Amino acid sequence: MLVKSFFFRVGISVLLALSAIPAVCQQTAVPDAPTPSQPVNNSPAAVEKRRWTDVVEVPGEKVPHLTVGDKLLFPIHEELRLSGWFPTFASSGWGQLRDTDPRYGVDSGAYGQRLGAAAIRDLSMRTFSDGLLPALLHEDPRYYRMANGTIVHRTLYAASRAIVGPRDSGKITFNTSVVVGHGMASALTMAYYPDKSANATVVMETWGISLLGEAGGNLWSEFWPDVRDKFFRRHPADQP
Prior knowledge:
Layout: H1 2-26, H2 44-49, E1 55-56, H3 68-80, H4 86-98, H5 108-137, E2 143-144, H6 151-160, E3 164-166, E4 172-174, H7 176-188, H8 200-232
Parallel strand pairs: 1-2
Antiparallel strand pairs: 3-4
Helix pairs in contact: 1-6, 1-8, 3-5, 4-5, 5-7, 6-8, 7-8
């Protein structure tokens, strides 16, 4: 059952990525054209304030180039954001509700163990995918919103960024940092998951679900600013 579930989830991820290939192939660089309705503040001070942003909200807004040292510190800045802990609490809560892997049981002590395991897993994924591998492979760990276009086009674009992404040069290539980094972090779970969950099947399922989670996070990053700006009248171009 777990194997079937894994291949089903990975199949959805692959289909989303394949569906986006035509659009991805046409875009060989990071979006760089601001819309007339969203003036971009690219003053030196505004650019510097965006150094640790993980989402570039407005096409055309400049962000500082991340050095090797910046990339190694990038996961720490992600962990310091309250929003960065949402996946940890969500996944451990769901695991407690359904008694999924890692199988610690369903008592109150089990939730604490699940929460700790989820925190280690999420931190290791960020360390590999947003820090170590981008530093080694010259890839950019930030998400660049499309921000314009149809809902379908933007959805495919956002989901595909779990599979493809920008290099430091701006060229879009296979997102080795995310795909391999999530795989490495998933394999590492064998070192701290309980024996009944420390196996290859769970590793592969964790890898597939984590890539779907990456795609889901990109969808949130793509569309949440639209909702926020509509109801709170906030201008993303003025934000760090």
